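Please, structure for the following, as tokens.
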Amino acid sequence: MSTSTKIGYIQNLDAVGAAIGRPLRYAIAVTAMASANAPGHISALTKHCNKALSRDELFQYTELSRESLLKMVATIGAPRVINGTAALMETLDESIRKMLPALSRRNRDEYNYETVHQRGIELWRGVYSKQAEKLELKIHAWYPDLIEVIQTDLYGRLLSDSRILDEKSTELCTIGSLIPINVPAQLKSHVLGAGRLGASADEIAAATALAETVCAHATSTHHQPL
């Protein structure tokens, strides 16, 4: 990808994502890039951020991007999350890397099954509203273990943890993760869920457009070196 192409790409992201602040805007883009299996694009964006963002913005971009990628294990799977995180961290300014926490925020001392399970149920209901119980029963009938893992491990332990990404921002990142993998039913649910959790129509449109821009660019440059 030439320098002019990279600049044009990022200008497009800024234009379509203008309703969302830059650190979260770029974190949503990173999430979509990982989902689209384009870690090289994460490297290119991070190189831009190293130069274009203030230190505070760059730190925030890194924290939001890492947390979004972690949470999206729930949607895009560990391999793409690992590759995306590697691309982000291996390109990041070294001084910012040194500022990041050295220990995990998630550990056995804070894990209480009932607390985590209830937190997952509450987010599940917040996202799906009147459809929450119906969907829960349907998935339970397919496989009880599946709804248990979704509600406790994914919604409870991952998605509802709001220390870095709040619930609204998590839903916007979820939208970014779902568009590249072409799951319209889940995308519709999370678009509605984002609105229920406080996202404006402009923010939802911006998250959608960011992911669509990433998809279009990832397809056009699939066989080109970055």
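The chain has two domains: 3-106+167-191+198-220, 108-160. DSSP finds 13 helices and no strands in the chain.
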